[in-house]
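Anyone opening a protein record will find just a pair of labelled lines. A complete record is shown below as an example.
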Amino acid sequence: MIEYALWFALGLMALSAVIPSSRFFRKPIGALGWVFFGIHWAYQPIHYLEIHDYFNVILTILVAIFCFFLAYTMVDEYRRRDFTLESIDVTSMVTGVAAIGSLFYFPFLQMESLNHWIISTVTSNTVFTLQTLGYSVTSTWNTISLYGYTVEIILACTAIESIALFMGLITSVKAPMKKVVSAFMVSVPVIYFLNVLRDAFVIVAYAEQWFGVSSFEIAHHGIAKFGSLIALFVIGYAVLKILPELFDLIDGVFELVTTWMRSVTEKLSGIR
């Protein structure tokens, strides 16, 4: 049921992104897509609670809230007949980014052949990296063993989420092809390479018990997550330097969120 909601959401969001801005039904279609997308993400914390990944529990809850917020904003724009904003149609652009990025990501999640391919590729690359560093590891198509400790490589270990996000951002911007290609080169290949190093670090830290009995949790859920955030921040900065057009989108989203938060705060304080 949730799977159908996801593809229904992506279809509506993609349709909204390609409809001309002058069409009055663009906003309602996009809003409905964000509602179904929000429902999908609202169910994800259940999975992460089961595997004790509390970072992603909080992250998916925030993503769901953001989805519902965008749905509300697009409905509000429709009611006000605000089909194009003064400078940039922020909600429609974000809808396009989400649709493109999701179409890069969810086939790997839903299609077994693609899922198997990307996991086995990351596994092979991580094994090669560890062997190059002098570690004698054994492996299957999705597991790596070192010193009797075995780590399973799953889709979340492939960085496909981050890659899809940057693909959505890069391909949604109207910019010269040379700049788009440059932004791609400093993001997607770099993210993949750093992710392989991250996986190798977690395996070694776990196998050598660097942090005691909680080595895997500390290395994977703590250090690796924090390191990934720093890396994504640096890569994002590099992409923005190449594609300054993205500043308009980021600034627009920030303005939408802060304006909404001010409105909510004022209403709760009784000013309005």
Observations:
- The mean pLDDT is 88.
- Strands lie at 138-139, 143-146, 149-152.
